[in-house]
């Protein structure tokens, strides 16, 4: 277990847990049962930390509705006043908001604005990762800064190896998103190493979720915002801020930590990348894992219920959150992530080569094995071409090289089952490569949808279906292809733009930001 420098966070967590015994912990019985089951696996010290963290989770969720006792609020205020991170955060907020107000006053020729500054905090421990989730973060911050000039944004991050200037510079280079650094303060969390998956070979979801609460405690002691939002999927921090921090909490959910599909696979003993042969082949292990999933799903639904607003990136994600999170039918909505396809839409549609391109990381869930089976089925059924060995694997390509391949390709191949959204499929369609995607989740429910009753791409789930669709596309006339390409490009550019995301995000956050 990595050490956390100079941190008495476990002591703080124990104090919080002890204070929370005033809350009836009957509702925590299922949670504490899980902790007891972990005792023999992890030893007494880890068990004690786990037990206290779980008590905080259950009690915090109850406090969302019951209200935080005044004594506990006083304790939190006392701990914050003793926190160097709190002092540094407050100084940075004051310095930047003062500079912003003075700058506005100079430009307008009037005195500095006197409206009180409020803070909106984003919980995003890996904000420097450069992925699609980070694009959501920076676009959301810009949307709030543009619409609510009296709000100052806080980012809780564990990227201690980069400065705030370096983080914002990477966002600018990677996404072309320019964030005014005077409107953002970073709180660097030293406890992030505790959420690394490799630390927990067993009960990974549960242990990562509990570890995220330690990050949440550290964040809470550094700054309690007026409004809080988790944009990275750490639902267990929601009741900490909503219950202990007494601030409205929201979430942007990219992927549920556990889904009803996962429960069904274990119940049916289906082998998958997250349900290995050794488990699916054993009735006993499958039963144990199913109960573990059920108990975790109960806890996940409880902590998710602390969110006053839950934005989901796709219909598939929404359906799972709606099924699991308490009260989600009142709080959940779909807000598609921002997809900057402006450069891809300039690629010509005509003159495509008979190239099939797949863009994905090498991870088991991306299901590259299905692509190989599909190509074999195509060759077995329709024969080989003249250039039968023309096959390439390109790694770590630049964006310019990716654009080049997407501009040449006739078919964009996607085989991941239950991909929550599928920005790669959006990019295929925007670039003019005819999408051949897996018939599930995001591509099925949100992206490859008919336009005016006519196809914008193709969906498949078996190797034989992929092979037949490839044969169909390759044998289309140029005019037939052009019609599908045109419909696909128009469809995605209308629905998945930066502006559409900003409008949707602000619409769902309005009652929290203006409340």
Automatic annotation (TrEMBL):
Known catalytic reactions: an alpha-D-Man-(1->3)-[alpha-D-Man-(1->6)]-beta-D-Man-(1->4)-beta-D-GlcNAc-(1->4)-alpha-D-GlcNAc-diphospho-di-trans,poly-cis-dolichol + 2 GDP-alpha-D-mannose = an alpha-D-Man-(1->2)-alpha-D-Man-(1->2)-alpha-D-Man-(1->3)-[alpha-D-Man-(1->6)]-beta-D-Man-(1->4)-beta-D-GlcNAc-(1->4)-alpha-D-GlcNAc-diphospho-di-trans,poly-cis-dolichol + 2 GDP + 2 H(+)
Pathway: Protein modification; protein glycosylation
Residue ranges of domain Glycosyl transferase family in the record: 395-489
InterPro entries: ALG11, ALG11_N, Glyco_trans_1
Residue ranges of the TM segments: 7-40, 46-72, 234-255, 291-311
Gene Ontology biological process terms from the UniProt entry: protein N-linked glycosylation
Presence of keyword Transferase: yes
EC number: 2.4.1.131
GO cellular component, one term: endoplasmic reticulum membrane
GO molecular function, one term: GDP-Man:Man(3)GlcNAc(2)-PP-Dol alpha-1,2-mannosyltransferase activity
Residue ranges annotated for the ALG11 mannosyltransferase N-terminal domain, each copy included: 118-325
UniProt keyword terms in alphabetical order: Endoplasmic reticulum, Glycosyltransferase, Membrane, Transferase, Transmembrane, Transmembrane helix
Family: Belongs to the glycosyltransferase group 1 family. Glycosyltransferase 4 subfamily.
Protein's job: GDP-Man:Man(3)GlcNAc(2)-PP-Dol alpha-1,2-mannosyltransferase that operates in the biosynthetic pathway of dolichol-linked oligosaccharides, the glycan precursors employed in protein asparagine (N)-glycosylation. The assembly of dolichol-linked oligosaccharides begins on the cytosolic side of the endoplasmic reticulum membrane and finishes in its lumen. The sequential addition of sugars to dolichol pyrophosphate produces dolichol-linked oligosaccharides containing fourteen sugars, including two GlcNAcs, nine mannoses and three glucoses.
UniProt protein name: GDP-Man:Man(3)GlcNAc(2)-PP-Dol alpha-1,2-mannosyltransferase
Species of origin: Salpingoeca rosetta (strain ATCC 50818 / BSB-021)
Taxonomic path: Eukaryota, Choanoflagellata, Craspedida, Salpingoecidae, Salpingoeca
